[in-house]
Amino acid sequence: MGKGEYLGEFEQIVLLALIKLGRNAYGMTIRREISKRTEREVSIGAVYTTLERMEKKGYVSSRIGDPTPERGGRAKKYFKVEALGERALNDSREALLKMGLILKPLVGTG
Amino acid sequence: MKDQDFEIIAVRRKTGIFQIEVNSRFITYANDRFREIFGYPKAKLENMPIRELYLDEKVAREKVVVKYPTSSGPPSPSVQLMPARLEYYLCLFTPKKVREHILGDLVEEYTSTILPKFGPERAQRWYQWQVFTTVCSYLKSRLLKVITFGWLVYKAEVMFRRFMN
Fold it and tell me: In chain A, how many domains are there?
């Protein structure tokens, strides 16, 4: 895995939220899921910029839903994690875990 | 499902967006979405006077077909409280391809969760904050692109000068 393929913290959080939400993953639900789980306020813009970036890399894909009246006639954009995204997520988490194992004895000796 | 009749008061055209006033509330559309709903060809839409658009049957039909079926009732006061100016800023600073989805997500969360939970005053502040942070997110990513491009140009110039010397 190349250097550039590791995911940032927020990218990992967004991907995990997508996996958790499954077929119901769109802007509002993703934002709410992240806010609920991480207890930090996230803007819808931050979620969309991250999703757009990951879509360009092929980590996620999107499809447009039907317009609904409660959204003022606007359509939802649903997102799904792709195999490439799952792999990048696993690799990033694995790398962090490995770093954790290296750090463990250092913390003990301090 | 029977549709309820609503009066369209005005149609406003601004840079890149259209706003239709229905029962004291402005509904904002990106130009592309507006064309999609009303079926105007691009060239015709851009040259059409607002008054003609306002009187057009397609716009009148949209008010009863797409927006508010009787079962869900008239636009609630909550929806009317959403500031149109903020929608305009959001449309101005966000890319076309996600504009409609971001607006839809904000409207849905505002009406379904935030307003019933926190009341109109806090809900308005929440909406303002969401628009502000969303605009900041997009401005930040644009700024980063400009800085990266500038840095690359600077590096290329330095290398070129070294090469020439």
Answer: 1
